[in-house]
Amino acid sequence: MTDCPLCRPDKETVLWSDTRCRVILVDDPDYTGFCRVIWQQHVKEMTDLSDAERVRFMTVVFAVEQALRESMHPDKINLASLGNQVPHLHWHVIPRFADDAHFPDPIWATRKRDPRAIRADQTRLAEQLKRRLGDLRQMKTRR
Q1: All domains of the chain, ordered by start, with CATH?
Q2: For residues 46-78, b (16+ Cβ closer than 10 Å) or e, as one string?
């Protein structure tokens, strides 16, 4: 798929990456700290990955969740893997706050309020991801 926006990224803020996946900060003013974990190769479904690749991918997703919890202290973290518009494996990791634009509904629901200004400390988040995922780069993933 040559027109996949996840295969050909443009202007991404990459917080962490290795040969298998990358973590980007999504530019969404309503949801600061919103991250996306993207499998580097164009793969459509989780079951297309080997068991080891799935474990590796989810290790990164869970590390992002933990880093967001530690750095932003959200009321909830939403994890979502949809891929309906872009059939390329990626997970959304979204910190949620009781006073965000849609809480407690999903972020694609009708807006309930204007959210308070919350800003993710991008540097701190990237440092926590490097600390949590540093050893993962040495981990071998077999197909």
Answers
A1: 13-138 (3.30.428.10)
A2: eeebeeebeebbeebbebbbebbeebbebeebe
